[in-house]
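@here heads up, posting the sequence + SMILES for the adenosine-5'-triphosphate run so it's all in one place. Ping me if the SMILES looks off, I pulled it from an old spreadsheet.
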Amino acid sequence: MADLSSLGLSDWLVRQCKQLGINKPTPVQEQCMPAILEGRDCLGCAKTGSGKTAAFVLPVLQKLSEDPYGIFCLVLTPTRELAYQIAEQFRVLGKPLGLRDCIVVGGMDMVTQALELTNQPHVVVATPGRLADHIRSSNTFSMKKIQFLILDEADRLLEQGCTDFTKDLEVILGALPAKRQTLLFSATLTDTLQELKNIAMNKPFFWESKSETRTVEELDQRYILTPEKVKDAYLVHLIQTFTDEHDDWSMIIFTNTCKNCQILTMMLREFNFPTISLHSMMKQKQRFANLAKFKASVFKILIATDVAARGLDIPTVQVVINHNTPGLPKIYIHRVGRTARAGRSGVSITLVTQYDIHLVQSIEEQNKTKLKEYPVEEKEVLKILTQVNVTRRACEIVGTPRPESLSHLLVSARCFQCSGLYH
Ligand SMILES: Nc1ncnc2c1ncn2[C@@H]1O[C@H](COP(=O)(O)OP(=O)(O)OP(=O)(O)O)[C@@H](O)[C@H]1O
Ligand SMILES: [Mg+2]
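bot reply: prediction finished. Complex structure tokens:
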């Protein structure tokens, strides 16, 4: 395997990498970095947690150090939290350069962002909506000289999902020079390959990691077949088991809606589990604060919608639970990819109801992997079933309660249930 300097990186950059524990390049870095340094466009498709971020950050920093100016590089990404994470990587690796970055995302102060953009930062990391707003409303900054356009989670940026970025991308591409290097990365590029090739016109270098499966080998992929009504009892039981059996653990639970996120958080807190949530109906400052507390292990359980499914790199996450079976195999790949990163091991457990069996079959077929059943003592789950369901209903009725009104309802809920297992 090549080392970092033989790939064309300067000594100062190799030293920075070593400080961060990056000693040898991962395959996506080894393959893509020389092509990027040669000036080619690049499409890199490699599994979750395989170091795609450094595969584009390092060559950009190398080129920036040879000819530093602002704005040199624009990175687009679908979520705000991911934008902060990528900017952090640029900042840490680019420290010796005195790198100036600017993060342009929704939910944060637009005037501050406008001022920072005017100051010609070297690197702008943005979500498309907010950057397009700045381009539409201001002419105090120019991106006509950028050398690099990077789309991280490129397939998500180009697909027409619930958040459709295509209009904003058109505005942004209109403000960029035609002569530039375009770099596209994701763990799931293949569905949108044609659209991606249209953006990276300059005979892109395409690299995809060769593997039987689309998920990492270190990940133990499990499912639990459960009737809808027993799902939450399984969840509480699983969390209790992990709490009992592991000292140092943290877990992300994915669910389908913001409301469900909120209700599950309230419910699990009633069982005294250290739970915090992340979803798009929260104020942005709260989103950042919650994620920071989860990363610092102040809270061990994060309940999130798919806003947290892509890109987030939190090494302590050992378990991912899919409270709902993802409707698309690629959403499954990104969700379970929040654990078992960079060679670590991890477990994913998908709760599957009778209505979701076809979804699991399609996940297994497309990802070329088999999910194994997760063994659970059903008797133990049934013992807590009533208590869990009553607690959940109380949380649903109360909505966002004043603390005392919720406690009142939950005390009566507990009176229904004689098993004191989780008090
Ligand atoms: N060469 C390397 N050696 C060791 N660790 C590395 C190396 N490159 C990156 N890492 C670490 O691996 C972790 C995962 O990297 P990264 O977040 O870039 O993965 P990714 O491929 O972008 O995953 P995802 O598809 O989930 O976004 C990070 O903590 C990063 O610091
Ligand atoms: Mg990534």
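MO: The chain has 16 helices and 14 strands.
MO: One more: The chain has two domains: 5-208, 219-418.
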